[in-house]
């Protein structure tokens, strides 16, 4: 029996029986289990080899359901939820006791999100529990944006992979909370800061740049390929490394190298399209025979900020 498919009923039965199902979302694939069942949640940490200090996002299909799991849903959250859900936005809200401490790594807040993918929304609407789901990759590696990416690394560790095609957005959700009277962004992602500020005004940005494990999940080195990745001017990198087999990630420009080593993320200079293509490009170069990968810095606006953040974390320091 195939482990990959579009059988929502099968996914539901596995999840009800404390199993693990990889689910498509518009950002990246998630590795899902019943968020209210500690045994199920433990399986996620094991399958990913993820440290317990790195908390999980819970997913449902309605604000009404989310209110069962959070003790307050303040005005700023309501405004952002109305503007962006279902979508690439995660909110940090005070948790109720029924959310296991394992899900939040003991923190008083739980991360919640309504993802925007038809298969997963249908699955969630058929479940009477939320799904805890980190990105479906081994801890520290690049997130998967296709079912085949999940299968390549976690095939043996999941019970089923719900195949929802290629993820539309391609990078993880933007994580937003509230601290010292201010809406605060903790992870750049699929919803741009500029768009969030149109709804709630100026926000604080508190992206963790350290490798301090006390700052859950915002580890500096993350999303990393196995091949060394450098951020540099592409022409000068090629000149500096004449003997190396180089994989290139560029925004919109073509370079005179072997086509199979060149990933132009958006020939039409569209940052959304570039984000959509980013992780698959890194994966393809990583599994090719290049020795190093060089990516150029993207424009620091809209999704370009999140792209640069992921490239930074993937890069050699
Ligand atoms: O787009 C996404 O967010 C994807 C899809 C599957 O929904 N999920 C995802 O999950 O990227 P993950 O586990 O790879 O990243 C979740 C991050 C954690 O590493 C942590 O930084 C933050 O969310 N987080 C989760 N719960 C938190 C909490 N209670 N307090 C602070 N940060 C939290
Ligand atoms: Mg992740």
CATH topology of the largest domain: DHBP synthase
User: What gap, in angstroms, lies between the N and C termini?
Assistant: 44 Å
Strand order of the largest sheet: 1-8-2-3-7-4-6-5-9-10-11
Instruction: Summarize the main sheet.
Output: 11 strands, mixed
Count the beta strands: 15
Any low-confidence stretches, pLDDT <50, length ≥5? 211-217
Query: Structurally, how many domains make up the residues?
Result: 2
Rounded mean pLDDT is 95
Give the helix tally.
Answer: 11
Report the sheet-strand fraction: 15-25%
Concise summary:
With 317 residues, the protein is of the alpha/beta class. It has helices at 8-16, 38-48, 63-66, 75-84, 101-104, 118-125, 147-154, 193-200, 234-240, 271-286, 303-314, and strands spanning 4-5, 21-23, 30-34, 57-59, 89-94, 109-113, 131-132, 160-162, 174-179, 182-187, 204-205, 229-231, 246-250, 262-264, 292-295. It has two domains: 3-205, Alpha-Beta Complex (DHBP synthase); 229-314, Threonylcarbamoyl-AMP synthase, C-terminal domain (Rossmann fold).
Topology (elements, then pairings):
Blueprint (H helix, E strand, L loop, with lengths): L3 E2 L2 H9 L4 E3 L6 E5 L3 H11 L8 E3 L3 H4 L8 H10 L4 E6 L6 H4 L4 E5 L4 H8 L5 E2 L14 H8 L5 E3 L11 E6 L2 E6 L5 H8 L3 E2 L23 E3 L2 H7 L5 E5 L11 E3 L6 H16 L5 E4 L7 H12 L3
Parallel strand pairs: 1-8, 2-8, 4-6, 5-9, 10-11, 12-15, 13-14, 13-15
Antiparallel strand pairs: 2-3, 3-7, 4-7, 5-6, 9-10
Helix pairs in contact: 1-6, 10-11
The structure holds threonylcarbamoyladenylate and magnesium ion.
């Amino acid at each position: 029996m195939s482990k990959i498919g579009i059988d929502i009923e099968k996914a539901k039965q596995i999840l009800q029986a404390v199993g693990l199902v990889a689910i498509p979302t518009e950002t990246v694939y998630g590795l899902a289990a019943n968020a209210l069942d500690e045994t199920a949640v433990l399986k996620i940490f094991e399958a990913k080899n993820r440290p317990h200090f790195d908390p999980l996002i819970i997913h449902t299909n309605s604000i009404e359901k989310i209110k069962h799991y959070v003790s307050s849903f303040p005005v700023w959250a309501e405004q952002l939820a109305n503007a962006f859900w279902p979508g690439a936005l995660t909110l940090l809200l005070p948790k109720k006791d029924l959310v296991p401490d394992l899900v939040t790594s003991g923190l008083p807040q739980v991360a919640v999100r309504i993802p925007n993918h038809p298969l997963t929304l249908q699955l969630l609407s058929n479940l009477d529990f939320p799904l805890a789901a980190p990105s479906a990759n081994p801890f520290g590696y690049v997130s998967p944006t296709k079912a085949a990416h999940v299968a390549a690394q976690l095939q043996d560790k999941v019970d089923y992979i719900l195949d929802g095609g290629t993820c539309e957005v391609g990078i993880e959700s933007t994580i937003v909370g509230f601290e010292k009277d201010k809406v605060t962004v903790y992870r750049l992602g699929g919803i741009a800061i500029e768009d969030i500020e149109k709804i709630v005004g100026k926000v604080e940005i508190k992206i963790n740049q350290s490798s301090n494990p006390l700052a859950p999940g915002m580890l500096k080195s993350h999303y990393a390929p196995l091949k060394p990745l450098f951020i540099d001017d592409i022409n000068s990198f090629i000149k500096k490394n004449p003997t190396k087999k180089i994989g290139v990630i560029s925004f919109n420009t073509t370079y005179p190298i072997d086509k199979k080593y060149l990933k132009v993320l958006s020939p039409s200079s569209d940052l959304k399209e570039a984000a959509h293509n980013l992780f698959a490009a890194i994966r393809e170069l990583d599994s090719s025979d290049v020795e190093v990968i060089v990516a150029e810095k993207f424009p620091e606006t809209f999704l370009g900020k999140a792209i640069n953040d992921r490239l930074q974390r993937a890069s050699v320091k």
